[in-house]
Every structure is written in C-alpha cells, then in structure tokens.
Amino acid sequence: MDAPTREGFGVACQVGLALNQPTIGVAKTPFYGRIEDDRVQSPDGELLGKVVRAGGGKAFYVSVGHRVGLEDSDRLVRRCLVNNHPSPLREAHLEAARLRRGLV
C-alpha cells in the first residue's frame, strides 16, 4: 500500500479499501485533532473521531475506516472491550510481541 495518506484517510481506510472489507480505526494515542468532551475534532471543528473510555479511565481513540460510520465504530469498539482493551487491538499487540520474540 504505497498510496500517500491525506488528512482524514488513515491506515484503517487504506486497508479497508485495499481489501474491500469494513474497517475501524482504533488507537491508544491521539494522532491528530483536539479532544473536547470525548470527541476528536479537527482545528476547524469537524468531527474526526470519538474517545472510548475503558475501566480506569484508559482512553482509546476511534475513527472511521472503510464502510463503517463513526457511530457504529464507537458502538462496536465499546462492545469489544475485554479487560479494559478492545479485543482486536489486544490480539494484534500480543501477536506482534510473539513475532518479535521469534525474531530475537
């Protein structure tokens, strides 16, 4: 996927478009915009994403990917919380750690 990114078109969009599959953007840290009342907004006030707070106040930043709207993305991430983490994000992290151990 060598296509250049542009504002509002992140990795989740690119992967979803390339695979023609629904995707959702989820991050552990904000990468763009400002946070106001659990909403991620662009400098001009456009809604870019939402903040999902898990137990203990841990925040995850949700944005649209491909073929899934923001409200559905927010709802799905909340339903996937297991042990205060979105399950797919945790599984990806664990798999990356497993692969890294195999390379060392």
Task: Give the key terms.
archaeoglobus fulgidus dsm 4304 fold, two-stranded antiparallel ribbon, alpha+beta
Question: Can you describe what's shown?
Answer:
The protein has 104 residues and is of the alpha+beta class. The protein has a single domain (11-103), classed as archaeoglobus fulgidus dsm 4304 superfamily (archaeoglobus fulgidus dsm 4304 fold, 2-Layer Sandwich), CATH 3.30.2170. The protein is built from 3 helices and 7 strands. The chain has helices at 11-19, 70-79, 87-103; strands at residues 23-27, 34-36, 39-41, 47-53, 59-66, 81-82, 85-86. The strands form 2 sheets. A 5-stranded antiparallel beta sheet has the order 1-5-4-3-2. A two-stranded antiparallel sheet has the order 6-7. A hairpin with a 2-residue loop joins strand 6 and strand 7.
Give the topology, please:
Layout: H1 11-19, E1 23-27, E2 34-36, E3 39-41, E4 47-53, E5 59-66, H2 70-79, E6 81-82, E7 85-86, H3 87-103
Antiparallel strand pairs: 1-5, 2-3, 3-4, 4-5, 6-7
Write the H/E string, N to C: HEEEEEHEEH
CATH architectural designation: 2-Layer Sandwich
Strand order of the largest sheet: 1-5-4-3-2
Q: What's the CATH first level?
A: Alpha Beta
- What structural category do the secondary elements indicate? alpha+beta
* Radius of gyration computed on alpha carbons: 14 Å
Question: Would you kindly provide a brief summary of this structure?
Answer:
With 104 residues, the protein is an alpha+beta fold.
